[in-house]
Every structure is written in structure tokens, then in C-alpha cells.
Design goal:
Structural class: alpha+beta
Strand order of the largest sheet: 2-7-6-5-4
Radius of gyration: 36 Å
Low-confidence stretches: 1-8, 512-516
Length: 516
């Protein structure tokens, strides 16, 4: 027996050995899979024994020698045999082992298997130390990001590793945490363990101020009690490094989002004009300006973390089979699909439907509206479709009947024109045009807006405002004098009507001013 000690304290089982990260390359061949072994013996066949026998030799080549070895091992009382190249055993030998109730295992490195058996049976602390040593070695290799760090740590411990929240896995490496096992993980304790059928997990709460509600989980199949206990220590040791990596990646993400937003804003301000510096920066960013483009914007209808929304949109776009880019546009996410060849109308519909599906998924966790521009080509076209998407999103914010989704292709000219009055270019011009009224007689603004909306009808305006028609005439005359405009001109009336629409908020207040 290992170390010639007394009877081991713990029963060793096959699933735990197979799940051990350093089991010597153990592979199950044939025989019972459920029996446990109280004893492990290495290269001792001179006296009776029990449990698992590990031989450092290789399985004999001749089938009669293979049969003789299996019979002798079983006659000595062993119930399992691990030997090199056991997978080369003939079919007759395999049938014999199964009939005799002998578990036949193949092992590449017998002494590693013996050490793993000792750890699982008698040296639980040694198993923990072994895990910790490998994790420490993994920390010596620089990780490019959180995904890379999880991959390094997963390789070190030989089990799956995942970051999860209550909804499910956020990131994982080395396998997939099943939904059944996830349901059995407790989120309130600092450390918790869980089992479901043959699966097991050890988890720790991640101490992160930027990403609350996360747990770091080590998981796998066949993990025994000794390994699970060791893994609870290991995930606790891993957690600070994971939390720090989350913070580093968050800061990098925020900085990158800010730089991308600045670049996109610079490009949009050019309105199709070429700027060598902006063009170079976009090329360095990997943003295609040539070809064909379909712009779209996700705009929050309430309080939403912009960087979180950008991350969610970018993840969703990775599932669409087209080149995509996204950047922050204020609190919104402005994005576009690019194509080297002109997509057919059916292709455009397909991608529009994909964006609609993305919108539906995002709305399950975030209150956002979606505006989609039209297909455009070239650098000027990219600027145009992005502007259209921004305008469409402004309309979509209040369009509950359309599910808060609006496509420019489905809008009339009047709707686009009204959307344009709310952009950052038109509003300053509107405020400048109406400045004399806003500063000297703001009470006239509502009357002027109503007058223009009612097609310069005095009686209709009076009825809408609930005042006498003479009052309307006096106020309109006063407003006309203040701004020095000729209301007899159709062009002037249209410009003033749009300006009033731009500066008066839905609540009736003037844009940029506090309610009186």
C-alpha cells in the first residue's frame, strides 16, 4: 500500500481520480465504474491485497499473458488494475476483466497516479497545496484580459472556471457550467459548494465594486469531496486577481469607449467631408468607411449604464454575420454594419430583422429604443446613415405602438424633418432665431407656436389657448416685432414653426431653461 501505512481514512473512487488534474493520464477501459477502493498498492503482487493495484509495467503483448495477468490480479483480491497501455488489451481480455469484476484502467504516468491517490485518500492539505502551487505558477504569466486570465487559471487547476451571476455564466473557460448546476449554487454565502448528479462546483463571491453580484466558480464532473474542499480554498485565492482584472478591463473599456466616441463624433461633425487625420484614426480603429453601410442606434428610455449598454450591444453584434462597429453617442450606442459588396434588398431585410431580434433581447434587461437608418455607400453614405439612425432613434423613444423601433425607410418626410429639429445642430440655430422672445417675452412663445401649428388661424389659435382672438392677434404682432420676421412668408412661417418645436420641450418648458 502507499507508504505502507495503516488503512486509509477515505474511500477512493474512480470519478474523483478521473477528475484529478494530475492523475497520470488515467483512462477508463472496462469493468465496474462505481466501486470505491480503501487501499492503493503500487507494484506489489507477492501477497494478497484489495482495492486498486498500480503497475509501472506495460500490459503484455500476448493475449494469453494479458488474460493471465487479469486472473492473477483478481485472484489476489484487487478490484481495479491501472497499467500502461491497458487500452491495447484484446477484446477477450476485456471481456474477462468485466466478467471477473475487475476495473481495467490505462495510465501513462503510474507514479503521478499513485501521488494523486495518496492526496485524495490521506493528504487533503497536500492536494490543496498542489492546487495553490499551480495557481501561483499561472499568475507568473501575464494575462491580456479577463478571458485570458480565466484560461490560464483553468489550465492550472484542470477544471472548468466561470464567472457567474444569478442569470447564468458571464464568462467561462474549460467547459460549460450547466444550468442545472448553476441553480444549486448559493449566492449569499462567501464560500459555497454545490452538487448536481455527477457535477460539482466550488464558488466564492467576487469582491468587485464595478461588477457586483458575481461569483467565481470552479466546476467539473466526478469531483470528489477532497477535491471540492481543496477547490474552495483555491477559488478564494484566485478571486482577488480576478476582481483586479475585472477592474483593469473595466477601466480599459471605459477609456476605449471614450476614445471611440470622440472619434465617431469627429467623423460625424465632418458631415461627409474628408479629414486625413480622422480617416487615419478610423483606419487604425478598423472602421471601414468604403463599401456599403447600414447605421442604427440604441437609445435608452430611462437610466442605463452607457458602457454596459455598449458592451451588451457589442456582444449581440458578434452574433450577426456581418462586419459591425459600435461606439457611444452620448448615452446612446451608435453602430453600423459594413459590407464590401452591395447587399440585396432581401439581405437588408434580413439584417434589419436581426437588429430587431437584438433589440428584443436587450429590452428584456434594458429599456432602450432602436432607430435604423437606410443603406448607404461610401464615406458620405456612412455619415448619412448614422445621422438617419440617430433621428430615427429619437422618434422611436416615444413610439410604443412600434415597440420603440423605427426604421427610416418606413418614415415619411415630415417625421424625419421633425426629428431633425431636435438635433444638436438645429437647436442652437432655433434658440438664436427666437432669442428676443425667449429673453424679453417668453410668455409669447406658446402663442406663436400655437398660431403656427394652427396654420396662422387666429380663431383656431384662440380656441386652442382659451383666450380671446384679439389677445392672439396682439401677442402674434408683438412676437413678430421682437424677432423682426415677416409672418406673411411661407418659408419664414415654416422656419419659425420648426424652431418653436425645437425649443419647447414636451412638458411645455423652453429647452435649456428651468420651468417657471
Amino acid at each position: 500500500m502507499i507508504g505502507h501505512e495503516a488503512t486509509p481514512r477515505f474511500t477512493l473512487d474512480l470519478p474523483a481520480l478521473l477528475a484529478h488534474p494530475n492523475n497520470g493520464g488515467l483512462v477508463y477501459v472496462v469493468g465496474p465504474e462505481s466501486d470505491g477502493w480503501r487501499e492503493v498498492t503500487v507494484d506489489e503482487m507477492n501477497e494478497p491485497g484489495s482495492g486498486l493495484l498500480i503497475l509501472t509495467a506495460s500490459v503484455p503483448e500476448a493475449t494469453w499473458q494479458q488474460d493471465a495477468l487479469v486472473r492473477r490480479v483478481r485472484d489476489l483480491g484487487f478490484t481495479a488494475l491501472a497499467i500502461r497501455r491497458a487500452e491495447d488489451a484484446g477484446s477477450g481480455t476485456r471481456k474477462l476483466a468485466t466478467r471477473l469484476g475487475l476495473t481495467l484502467l490505462s495510465v501513462s504516468r503510474p507514479f503521478d497516479l499513485a501521488r494523486a491517490s495518496w492526496q485524495l485518500q490521506q493528504a487533503r492539505d497536500a492536494l490543496t497545496i498542489d492546487y495553490v502551487r499551480k495557481v501561483a505558477q499561472a499568475f507568473e504569466y501575464p494575462a491580456a484580459d479577463l478571458t485570458d486570465l480565466l484560461r490560464h487559471l483553468c489550465a492550472a487547476i484542470g477544471h472548468g472556471l466561470a464567472l457567474i451571476d444569478t442569470a447564468g455564466p458571464v464568462q467561462q473557460a474549460g467547459g460549460e457550467l450547466t444550468s442545472e448546476l448553476h441553480k444549486h449554487i448559493q449566492f449569499s454565502p462567501w464560500i459555497s459548494t454545490a452538487r448536481f448528479e455527477q457535477q460539482a462546483a466550488a464558488s466564492v463571491r467576487v469582491d468587485s465594486s464595478t461588477r457586483p453580484g458575481l461569483r467565481l466558480v470552479a466546476f467539473g464532473e466526478g469531483i470528489g469531496d477532497a477535491q471540492l474542499r481543496a477547490l474552495t480554498t483555491v477559488v478564494e485565492i484566485m478571486m482577488p486577481a480576478v476582481a483586479a482584472r475585472i477592474l483593469i478591463d473595466e477601466l480599459a473599456s471605459v477609456n476605449d469607449a471614450s476614445a471611440s466616441a470622440d472619434l465617431l463624433r469627429n467623423f460625424m461633425d465632418l458631415r461627409g467631408a474628408r479629414d486625413p487625420d480622422v480617416q487615419r484614426r478610423m483606419t487604425d480603429k478598423g472602421w471601414r468607411t468604403g463599401g456599403f453601410h447600414l447605421g442604427f442606434q440604441f437609445t435608452p428610455r430611462g437610466r442605463v449604464d452607457p458602457v454596459g449598454l455598449l458592451r451588451a450591444v457589442s456582444y449581440e453584434l458578434s452574433e450577426i454575420s456581418a462586419e459591425s462597429h459600435a461606439a457611444l453617442n452620448g448615452q446612446s450606442v451608435l453602430a453600423w454594419l459594413s459590407f464590401s459588396e452591395p447587399p440585396t434588398p432581401s439581405d437588408v431585410e434580413h439584417y434589419a430583422n436581426s437588429l430587431h431580434d437584438t433589440h428584443q433581447r436587450l429590452r428584456s434587461t434594458r429599456d432602450v429604443a432602436l432607430g435604423i437608418g437606410s443603406l448607404q455607400s461610401g464615406e458620405v453614405g456612412l455619415s448619412r446613415t448614422l445621422s438617419e439612425a440617430t433621428d430615427a432613434a429619437k422618434i422611436a423613444v416615444s413610439r410604443s405602438a412600434t415597440g420603440y423601433l423605427v426604421r427610416v425607410d418606413t418614415l415619411g418626410l415630415d417625421q424625419l424633418l421633425l426629428a431633425w429639429t431636435g438635433n444638436d445642430t438645429f437647436l442652437p440655430a432655433a434658440e438664436s432665431m427666437l432669442a428676443p422672445i425667449i429673453t424679453q417675452a417668453p410668455e409669447l412663445l406658446a402663442t406663436l407656436a400655437a398660431y403656427l401649428d394652427n396654420e396662422s388661424g387666429v380663431q383656431a389659435t384662440a380656441a386652442a389657448l382659451g383666450v380671446h382672438r384679439n389677445t392672439v392677434m396682439q401677442r402674434v404682432q408683438r412676437a413678430q416685432e421682437l424677432i423682426g420676421a415677416d409672418l406673411g412668408s411661407p418659408e419664414t412661417r415654416l422656419a419659425l414653426q420648426l424652431a418653436c418645436r425645437a425649443v419647447i420641450t414636451p412638458g411645455g418648458d423652453t429647452a435649456g431653461q428651468q420651468p417657471q
